[in-house]
């Protein structure tokens, strides 16, 4: 099925045939009226966007099932008695498209919560308020970790795994995720085995990508390889194209992880359509080849013991034509640092038990699952398909547009991109 977005058209296809709108995915399973599709909408690449959330609020005075205080509002104790109160209570969801995920500090963590600055007066060591974007419930066959912090991943995935082929560990993780989502987001009882099987079969059958760019036209025309049908046949296994050469097939790392639009770089640059195609192709080359000195990234620089790694976007986004990381590798880009905190986000002060070190963060990420100091602020790099349909970006919705994503990287790693390079990169990301 094809849906419109500001850059063009997005398409979702289902391996099993037509997309079954009767699936339990679309049915209310709990007690608050929510279904999976309350937060995972086809037109938003199976996430949700502030534009559409605001429209839903306006159409229902903020009573659509999305607007529920358990995790939709800034605090579960927020006043939701009037439309005006609801507009305040759900301001994070309305403006940033984020859900409040509540996770406490593990008992045996290497750190304690020394101070909380929560503008909504709720968070504590028992339950930190973590404002996170719904990840797309599509293209799941390529996942190497489930959730931003990988917390629903039951064990490290084992090779080999091919797109469309069932993988026991991934399936097990997704089964767990369905139960957590039904009990948590939908405030229901445990779903039945039939409902779980239906939902997992539904979501794992989906493949989604941008299929048409308003200027460049069909993204699979004239030797280009965009769109969901080609993606559904993308070769994949855990560890494919591993950056450190650990691909189980023994193949060496190829930084040209994205290879969708090379065909468009060979065309004469005549007219508006050709110019846009050339720009997308240049953006893809930049993604694969533009040098980035990667420094200060926890999970990478500290793990390898090197202060700077000469890499590219594809060092981290190495899954061929998909763009996540092909082994579970959550990283800290610095998005949760106090320096990037905006006044609408809570700020947590963590103190390390062993030596009194302090750090301030808006979301400890993986550290809340492992209890490890070194894991503070680490999140997975998500799949980079269907991006144009689902702003804002990063786990906390920090970047309202793909231009701002590119801007972030340019500043963060002092790349010094030209204006044209930034435009090309954003055009490429929009075409995914
Ligand atoms: C209230 C909104 C909401 C509802 C309802 C909801 N989800 Fe989610 N979903 C989220 C958020 C937010 C995340 C990311 C949370 C995180 O990583 O901490 C997420 C993550 C996921 C992921 C992980 C994808 C990945 O890349 O790791 C899957 C799969 C998923 N949801 C499927 C479902 C299913 C199936 C249902 C229905 C049973 C459902 N969700 C209901 C908000 C929701
Ligand atoms: C050091 C590893 C690393 C490098 C280099 C890197 N990324 Fe990322 N990328 C990540 C991680 C990790 C995330 C998720 C961060 C978060 O949300 O906390 C991410 C997120 C993103 C997102 C947001 C996706 C979404 O669903 O919200 C986009 C888009 C993106 N990266 C594009 C790029 C581009 C373009 C480049 C090159 C200019 C690049 N990345 C370089 C690791 C990296």
Automatic annotation (TrEMBL):
UniProtKB keywords: Heme, Iron, Metal-binding
Record field: compositional bias (Polar residues): 71-82
Region described as Disordered: spans on this chain: 60-82
UniProt cross-references to PROSITE patterns, sorted A to Z: CYTC
Ranges for domain Cytochrome c: 17-207, 278-432
Segments crossing the lipid bilayer: none
Record bears the keyword Heme: yes
InterPro entries membership: Cyt_c-like_dom (IPR009056), Cyt_c-like_dom_sf (IPR036909), Cytochrome_c_Peroxidase/MauG (IPR051395)
Keyword Oxidoreductase: no
Domain of life: Bacteria
PANTHER family assigned to the protein according to its UniProt record, in alphabetical order: CYTOCHROME C PEROXIDASE-RELATED, METHYLAMINE UTILIZATION PROTEIN
Name of the featured protein: Cytochrome c domain-containing protein
Organism whose genome encodes this protein: Luteimonas terricola
Taxonomic lineage from the root: Bacteria, Pseudomonadati, Pseudomonadota, Gammaproteobacteria, Lysobacterales
């Amino acid at each position: 099925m094809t849906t419109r977005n500001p850059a063009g058209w997005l398409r979702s296809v289902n391996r099993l045939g037509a997309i079954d709108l009767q699936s339990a995915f679309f049915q209310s399973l709990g007690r608050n009226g929510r279904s999976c599709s309350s937060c995972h909408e086809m037109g938003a690449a199976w996430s949700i966007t502030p534009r559409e959330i605001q429209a839903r609020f306006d159409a229902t005075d903020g009573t659509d099932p999305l607007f529920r205080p358990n995790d939709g509002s800034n605090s579960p104790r927020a006043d939701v008695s009037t439309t005006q109160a609801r507009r305040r209570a759900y301001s994070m969801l309305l403006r940033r498209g984020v859900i409040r995920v509540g996770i406490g500090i593990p008992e045996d963590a290497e750190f304690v919560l020394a101070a909380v600055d929560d503008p909504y007066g709720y968070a504590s060591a028992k339950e930190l308020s973590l404002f996170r974007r719904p990840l797309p419930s599509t293209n799941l066959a390529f996942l190497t970790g489930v959730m931003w912090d990988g917390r629903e991943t039951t064990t490290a995935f084992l090779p080999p795994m091919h797109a469309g082929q069932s993988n026991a560990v991934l399936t097990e993780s997704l089964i767990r995720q369905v139960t957590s989502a039904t009990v948590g987001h939908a405030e229901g009882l445990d779903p039945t085995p039939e409902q779980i099987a239906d939902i997992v079969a539904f979501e794992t059958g989906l493949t989604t990508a941008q299929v048409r760019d308003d200027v460049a036209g069909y993204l699979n025309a004239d030797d280009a390889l965009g769109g969901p049908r080609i993606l559904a046949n993308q070769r994949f296994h855990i560890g494919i194209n591993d950056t450190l050469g650990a691909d189980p097939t023994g193949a060496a790392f190829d930084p040209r992880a994205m290879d969708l639009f090379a065909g468009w770089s060979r065309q004469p640059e005549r007219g508006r359509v050709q110019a846009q195609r050339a720009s997308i192709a240049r953006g893809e080359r930049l993604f694969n080849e533009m040098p980035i000195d990667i420094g200060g990234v926890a999970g990478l620089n500290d793990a390898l013991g090197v202060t700077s790694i000469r890499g590219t976007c594809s060092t981290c986004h190495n899954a061929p034509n998909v763009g996540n990381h092909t082994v579970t590798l959550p990283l800290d880009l610095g998005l949760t640092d106090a320096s990037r905190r905006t006044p609408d986000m809570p700020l947590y002060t963590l103190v390390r038990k062993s030596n009194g070190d302090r750090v301030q963060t808006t979301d400890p990420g993986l550290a809340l699952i492992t209890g490890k100091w070194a894991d503070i602020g680490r999140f997975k790099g998500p799949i980079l398909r269907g991006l144009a349909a689902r702003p804002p970006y990063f786990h906390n919705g920090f970047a309202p547009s793909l231009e701002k994503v590119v801007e972030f990287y340019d500043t963060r790693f002092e790349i010094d991109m030209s204006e044209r390079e930034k435009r090309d990169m954003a055009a490429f990301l929009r075409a995914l």
